[in-house]
Specification:
The chain is mainly alpha-helical. 77% of the residues lie in helices and 0% in strands. The protein has one domain: Arc Repressor Mutant, subunit A (Orthogonal Bundle). α2 packs antiparallel against α3 and α3 crosses α4.
Length: 74
């Protein structure tokens, strides 16, 4: 399957681009890890972010809160 075909199928079946779906999946994984007590640095590494700050920026952009603020609110 070509990359373009995969993109079209994602839009058709998921209603969103592949990159957005992947980002949401990473967010769900991050939330599970935070709820399990994992450290932000470890979560960032596990999810493939170059730095913990890049992960924090993504998390805040998608949730409106930092990972630590999220953890404290639970």
């Amino acid at each position: 399957m070509t990359a373009r075909t995969l993109e079209r199928r994602c839009m058709k079946e998921l209603g969103m681009p592949l990159n957005e779906w992947r980002q949401r999946l990473k967010l769900l994984r991050a939330i599970d890890e935070l709820d399990g007590g994992a450290q932000v640095q470890q979560i960032a590494h596990t999810l493939g972010y170059a730095t913990p700050s890049a992960f924090i920026v993504m998390f805040k952009r998608m949730t409106g809160t930092t990972p630590e603020q999220y953890r404290l609110s639970r």
